[in-house]
Design a protein that fits this description.
This protein starts with a helix and ends in a 10-residue tail after the last strand. Strands 3-4-6-5 form a four-stranded mixed sheet, with helices on one face. The protein has a four-stranded mixed sheet with strand order 7-8-10-9. By secondary structure, the protein is of the alpha/beta class. A hairpin with a 5-residue loop joins β13 and β14. The protein is built from 17 helices and 14 strands.
Length: about 500
């Protein structure tokens, strides 16, 4: 009697996916990447240079998505755990007409969804639909889609059928509507996630300890040998990767020690490209060869004059803006070279000279501003500094600063208070949970960190003893055992 149930299941699927989806062959990995091009174009971190928070969220989510897609392609996999992702989606030709979720003034919006799919094609469709992107190109990519459906499908009505709950109880089939609601409601809780991932994190951490010691040794030796202020990394590279970079710098020091001593007193940062940063740090591009690094170290003395002229330019801009301090905030602004930042300041200064905004001298002392190349209007950051576009209209800028000056002072005062509270809560959390290391990603604000720590301190979390805990925007166990949890973690019974 159950021979009729196969077309019934097909009808249920047609309510969720396009008609052609049911008769298409399996997607390959290459086809999935090709089909997701509109999505990658809308969320690629390179398009979020002026928005470091959003850029980092997208980078982290893309890494998690990549792992999910890889696991789907592994032979013999049974089922993947639901994976929650957050993306900031840029306005593009495909989604600009969608009025359901408005874009921010910066031209992007946040999209959150949970992946609980079992094959590449349904995963691709779910991602595109979640981001309000077109799926029309998918059918053309799937070359084996039948031009005519099977005879059995021809006899089927196009009217969707809503089956009674008793049907699913009797047959044992899953109610697709109920299953979908359950997946959407499903939220990872802190305790359940730690229960599931604590053991693997401990194993990874223990395996990484010898390399961590080697990393500390190399860092101390090079810092002492080259008399550096610090050695840092822009990205969350693994310990092995960092050791490799320090070994590379160490070999260069053996070959050209006197040249590398030009960096005396500087901070060296391993990042995506080589040069002198806007704040005077030596940036070493990890993809560059020793020759490029050597040339950079040779040029370091010549940057002294440019740094002096840049500081003078900042003082001149400050004078024209009533004594407001010009600041460059590494955690919140895109990575710029010294030359790029000087050019940005120079353009803004020349525009100010043409208009001469009538600010009373020193009337804005104690306030701060950061300059960026966005084409949007000025704004006041929650930390108290003004974000001012290079090509901002001077008249509008004057009015905006005057109307927001008092609020800016209050925000700056609150920022200083928050920093003190944040530091105290980090120390208290480290002590209470016996953490080996407790830190946050740059994209997590002090307000978010304070909220996170206060709630953590109310929880009994023995799993954290001796661990490295990072406050982020997502759950993850890093390759070296660091535990990443979102600042807005939830707790309680997980939906099963």
């Amino acid at each position: 009697m159950f021979w009729r149930l196969r077309p019934v299941m097909r009808l249920c699927l047609e309510k969720v996916f396009p008609h052609w989806f049911l008769y298409s062959r399996a997607f390959s990995g290459a086809e999935a990447v090709n089909a997701l091009r509109p999505f990658y174009f809308a969320v690629h971190p390179d398009f979020f240079g002026q928005h470091p928070r959003e850029r980092e969220v997208n980078e982290n989510s893309l890494q998690k998505l990549s792992v999910y897609l890889e696991n789907l392609q592994k032979p013999g996999f049974k089922s993947l755990k639901p994976t929650q992702l957050t993306f900031y989606v840029r306005e593009t030709d495909q989604n600009s007409s969608d009025g359901q979720e408005p874009f921010s003034t910066f031209g992007f919006r946040a999209v959150k969804f949970t992946l609980h799919t079992r094959d590449l094609l349904s995963t691709v469709l779910y991602i595109l639909n979640s981001c309000r992107l077109s799926i029309e190109h998918i059918q053309s990519l799937n070359s084996s889609v039948h031009s005519q459906p099977p005879k059995e499908a021809k006899r089927m009505t196009d009217r969707p059928i809503k089956w009674d709950k008793s049907y699913y109880s009797f047959t044992g089939f899953k109610d697709p509507d109920e299953h979908l609601e359950q997946v959407l409601r499903m939220e990872t809780t802190l305790t359940s996630w730690l229960d599931t991932n604590g053991k693997s994190a401990i194993e990874k951490l223990e395996n990484s300890l010898p390399l961590r010691k080697e990393l500390d040794r190399l860092k101390d030796e090079l810092s002492c040998q080259l008399q550096l202020s610090d050695i840092r990394w822009q990205r969350s590279w693994g310990v092995a990767h960092r050791c490799s970079q320090l070994h590379s710098l160490g070999r260069l020091a053996q070959q050209n020690l006197e040249t590398l001593k030009n960096a005396k007193g500087c901070t060296v940062i391993f990042t995506d490209r080589s040069g002198m940063s806007a704040v005077g740090h030596v940036m070493l591009g990890t993809m560059d060869v020793h020759h490029h690094w050597t040339k950079l170290f040779e040029r370091l003395p010549s940057y002294v004059d440019l740094q002096r002229r840049l500081m003078l330019l900042e003082d001149q801009i400050s004078y024209l803006l009533g004594g407001m301090q010009v600041v460059y905030i590494e955690e919140l602004q895109p990575v710029l070279t010294l030359e790029e930042y000087y050019s940005l300041l120079d353009v803004f200064y020349k525009r100010l000279l043409k208009t001469r905004i009538p600010f009373h001298p020193r009337s804005l002392r104690g306030l701060q501003m950061s300059l960026n190349s966005d084409r949007y209007a000025p704004s006041l950051h929650e930390l108290g500094h003004f974000n001012i576009p290079t090509l901002c209209d001077p008249a509008k800028l004057q009015w905006f600063i005057l109307t927001k000056a008092q609020q800016a002072r209050e925000n700056l005062k609150r920022k200083d208070e928050l920093k003190v509270i944040e530091k105290e809560l980090i120390q208290a959390s480290t002590k209470q949970f016996s953490l080996e290391k407790f830190y946050k990603e740059p994209s997590v604000s002090s307000i978010q960190m304070v909220d996170c720590c206060k709630r953590l301190l109310q929880q009994p979390l023995p799993y954290l003893r001796g661990m490295h805990l990072c406050i982020s925007h997502f759950y993850s166990v890093m390759q070296d055992g660091d535990l990443c949890i979102p600042w807005n973690w939830k707790n309680g019974e997980a939906v099963k």
